Amino acid sequence: DSGVTQTPKHLITATGQRVTLRCSPRSGDLSVYWYQQSLDQGLQFLIQYYNGEERAKGNILERFSAQQFPDLHSELNLSSLELGDSALYFCASSVDPRDEQFFGPGTRLTVL
Amino acid sequence: AQKVTQAQTEISVVEKEDVTLDCVYETRDTTYYLFWYKQPPSGELVFLIRRNSFDEQNEISGRYSWNFQKSTSSFNFTITASQVVDSAVYFCALSEIPPGGKLIFGQGTELSVKP
Known about the structure:
Strand content of chain B: over 45%
Shape of chain A: globular
Distance between the termini of chain B: 41 Å
Oligomer: heterodimer
């Protein structure tokens, strides 16, 4: 158990819908990262927050947004969902951006 | 641009064999970090090791060892006396220097250890 929690574990929804994925980092970790894992793209970095502020952005679609709240938990919002958004979404956290990242168990999103 | 290449897509060995997973990286940064993660069939990503670009010492942890060679931009991972529980997908990753920290992953090597 990495100490990073993600909810829900599984999510099945329809095209065009909007979903919110939630992540609670390890106690004491200020940095939160979101990654997407799909068969065709592999593991791709989406976005990073550090102590509430956006720190880095990857290949994140405009339909996706995220935020980190004062209690340091983070949410990833995916809207106007398409079939291609089906993937495993991981949240990771670290004390500092230079430190190793610990990953949550992931949320498996299926868009039908 | 930063890139990580794991040329071996799948490796199959018999229990107790030694196996080496290759990782080659590209970066223009002089300071960077390299990582290995394990993804067992259950799906979670498990941290194995982090290596600073200034530290080229090889590391051993039990049956696991890592060989970092800056001259060839490689960070290879060897499992000695493999076990069935080692069956997983192994990812090598490169981290850019702060203020970022995002991980750039290779495509992964699926290791299958047969009894």
